[in-house]
Amino acid sequence: MRFPRIFVFGTMRPVTPPLTAGQPKRKRAIILDRDGTIVRDHNYLDDPRLLQFLPGAAAALRQFRERGHPIIIVTNQSGVGRGRLTLERMHEINERFVQMVEEFGATVDRLYSCPHKPEDDCECRKPKTKLVLDGAAAVGFEPAHSVVIGDKSSDIALGRNLQAITMLISNDGRVCHGDWVEPDYVIRDLLEAVRIVANLEAAARDCGGDGLRG
């Protein structure tokens, strides 16, 4: 089963040019996994009716938006490559997801989905950085000046590859899939992430720098 390498669905906004030397940095971009981070993980989610926000997730997205953070979703969806769902159904799920986010008063700047299996060795599957770099070019943020949040080792490895701040969502301090990759923070939900990012931003303002890595 062959696919183009990248599938993009999201709320399309006017593209902000990337930052150049001498310009002040924007608020940190928030790069999020989807399943297990924002919505409940159904292993291979194949029905938009099954989309359900995790506790506090919708409120956290709204707060990130209100505070001016770009929001980028990057999700591995190998169920397409494995024949568990069609590409069209994947887009339907993404469309419903964006609609749900907007119903809670937030928006998504870009949503990127990789439909390949791990063995396809594509360039868009996390922890490779291509989709985030595409988002950075389109929206206008510095990847190293961002926060990567997810529940899997591939999310934390993605953040490490970007030299960004990493946050693992976990109730027991372990990743739900893959080998352990050390995150900067272990958090229980996205509302905790909002508080940590706010503190990082405040610390960066106070010291005149950028705080922890980026």
Which features characterize this protein?
6 helices, 7-stranded mixed beta sheet, 214 residues, alpha/beta, Rossmann fold, disordered N terminus
Description:
The chain has 214 residues and is of the alpha/beta class. It has a single domain, classed as 3-Layer(aba) Sandwich (Rossmann fold), CATH 3.40.50.1000. It contains 6 helices and 7 strands, in the order ββαβααβαβαββα. A 7-stranded mixed β-sheet has the order 1-4-3-2-5-6-7, sandwiched between helices. Helix 1 runs parallel beside helix 6. The longest helix is centred in the C-terminal third of the chain and has 18 residues. It starts with 6 loop residues before the first strand and ends in a 7-residue tail after the last helix. The N terminus is likely disordered.
Describe the structure concisely.
With 214 residues, this protein is an alpha/beta fold. It is 33% helix and 14% strand.
**Percentage of residues assigned to helices:** 25-40%
Give the domain tally: 1
Sequence of strands across the biggest β-sheet:
1-4-3-2-5-6-7
Alpha-beta content class = alpha/beta
Fold-level CATH name:
Rossmann fold
- Compute the number of strand runs: 7
Task: Return the CATH architecture.
Answer: 3-Layer(aba) Sandwich
Global Rg: 16 Å
